[in-house]
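Figure 3 (text version): structure tokens given as input.
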């Protein structure tokens, strides 16, 4: 297979990987706003907030690993 055939996929995977790194930094900077106490939902417990935070972080990590592996495997 020609090396130029995979160049587009390499660039897209690398760009998505870098974008996801910036998304992770944004999530960390806005941690309190995203996962803090919501006054509109008084019945929300700290366990529910932690569970939501865990779901977002797990989804972000999976996307980061997937794009990173595509960027590295296509080399």
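Below: residues designed for each position.
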């Amino acid at each position: 297979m020609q090396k130029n055939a995979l160049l587009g996929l390499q660039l897209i995977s690398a760009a998505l990987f870098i974008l996801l790194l910036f998304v992770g930094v944004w999530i960390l900077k806005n941690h309190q706003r995203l996962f803090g106490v919501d006054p509109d939902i008084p019945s929300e417990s700290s366990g529910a907030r932690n569970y939501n935070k865990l779901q977002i972080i797990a989804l972000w990590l999976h996307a980061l690993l997937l794009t990173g592996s595509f960027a590295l495997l296509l080399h």
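The mean pLDDT is 86.
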